[in-house]
Amino acid sequence: MKKMTQYTRITLVLSLLLLVGLVGCSEESQTPVTSDASIADIPGSEQYKIADSVEVSPDSVTLLAGQTIPAGTITVEVVEDEAGAYAFIVTYSTVDGWELTEAHLWVGTDLAQMPQTRSGNPKIGNFPSQSGEITGATSYTFYVPVTLAEAMCTSTPDYLIAAHAALRKPTGDGTTYQTETGWGDGERLGDRGSWATVFAVDILCESSSTDEETGGGTETAFAFGNSLALCFSSLDTDQDGRSEFQRWGWTNGPLSPGSYAFP
Does residue 230 lie in a domain region? Predict the structure, then answer.
C-alpha cells in the first residue's frame, strides 16, 4: 500500500450505506443488520430512501484482514429523506468464515478532523460511529448524516472514510480463532505504526433540470422561401383530393428550370 500522499478515487459498490444529513457530520451507532436488509431495517433510518440523483464512487471497497487477506467488503450508498437531507449507509460484510467482533467508522472531509495520536495513528476508540460488542456478526451497518454541497458534484475527492474492524475466523478445532485487524482498502495513513488506511469517495450528481426549466429541447426545422414555399399538407399531386403527406413542413417548389433568388 502507498503512503497517504493524495486521495485516490475508488468506486464504492454500495452495500455499506452512509446516511447524509443537512447539518454537520454527526454519526450514530447502529445495531447489526443482515447484508440483504432494506433501509427500513436499519434503526433510525425509517425516514430515508435511496437517493435518485446522487451516488458515490467508488461504492465498495475490500475489507482487508491483516493488510493482505480479503475478508469481505465495505459498501456505501447515498440516501435522502423527504426534506432533502442526505446520509451515507455504510455496511460491513464478511466472507470466507470471517466474523466481526467490533466495527469503528469515521467519515469526514479533512484528515485533520479524524481522532488520531500525535504520530498520526487513528484513535479508533474515539471514532464517532462504533458498533460495540458484535462478536459473531457477519454484517453490520452504520448510517451517517452528511452535508452534500453543490460544489461536491464537480470537485474530488469529497469524503474520506476510515472503516476499521476487529475480525476473527475459526481455526477448525472449534475452540480457537485467528484474529486480525481489518480496514477498508485504501491509502495507508503513515509509514510507521498502524497500517490503518483511508479511502476517498466522490459525489456523483445527476442533473435535475428539464427542457422546460432550461429552455432546451429539439424541434424539426424547414427552409421557408416566402412566396415560393408550399406546405406539405396542402400538396395533392395526383389530384385525388387528399394530400400525399401526413405531416407539416415546407417545400420551396416545385420549381421550373431557371434561376431564383431566395430571401
Answer: yes
